Amino acid sequence: MNAEQRRKTWLAISRVTGTVGQGITRRIVGGAKGDALEEAMTGGGEWTEIAAAAAKRMGEADEEIARAAKVGARLIDVEDDEYPAMLRGITDPPPALFVMGEILPADARSAAVIGSRNATRYGIGVTKALVPPLCGKGVTIVSGMARGIDAAAHRAALKAGGRTIAVLGTGIDVPYPNESLDLYEEIPKRGAIVSESAPGTIALPHVFPPRNRIISGLAKVIVIVEARLRSGTSVTARHALDQGREVGVVPGDIDLMRSAGTNALLIDGAFPVRCAEDVLAHAFGEPRGQPASTIAPLPVPPGLDEDTAALWGALQAAGASTLESLAQATGLRAPVVMSGIGKLERSGLVRGDGWGRFEVANVVDDR
Length: 367
Prior knowledge:
Structural class: alpha/beta
CATH topology of the largest domain: Rossmann fold
Distance between the termini: 47 Å
Helix content: 40-55%
Largest sheet: 9 strands, mixed
């Protein structure tokens, strides 16, 4: 069969219930001596039923391809030269992918940078510091285009002039979330957006766990910045470990739930990431230098009195802190500290965690 027919057939196979998640793709490709798909589909035996079911999905495949083409996306399959070799090697590679932009052989030198959607300023700052040096060493940044850490990673890569690949859980024609529309438009110019979902697939919870295996499958190393114990990021980490990938973790505050997942991964053997040099040295064999500070301080917000500004500076320097530790750091009396923190909370600049600790408020706009 020709390439166009082969891609369409792979897409139809992917829509047959049970073929994704059972290692069917790898079994077909791994056992072939020539044209993997044609050999399997005409070989009888266990493939007869799959071939018959896929034949009934060919019209559906035509519709998906046409819909993807309307947004400038094309279809590639697991036998295409463009299909990433690292992804092809996982236990359950997607049979076909819709692609906007271009995937290059050099993208095999890649790092997935992922983390919490509800990212803190610390997490966003670390991400912005990690990504540019990686791009400067020719590392492609892979992520999921979600709000928070994912979006910050893509934007940092684009700003640094690097390459980046976004993996959607939704259809290739459904940019998600809305605040990442700028990324949806810019990433294909400096990398690619990919999805295995049917065009038109919306953001429902079940579409994201399968997406996560693609994120880890595309990357040589996975760097996790902030994650709860039970989260999509933790699922991606498990996929990465199953796929034999390196997993690096940015250590987090032991008292914050959003760091519980990352700190648990450190206990389980992930390597600690303090700066980009840790990633380059551990995963790519680059010489290790002296780690630098990762976060530039925010300017003091206007309108703060001297004491409140001192509290703001202390929170930036120390991270989450108790009222007592803030009093010690600033030399201010307890009533002054309580009053100042109250002002910062009311202004939305600081928030409490409910356990007597306070931190600089989350950053929603990671631009």
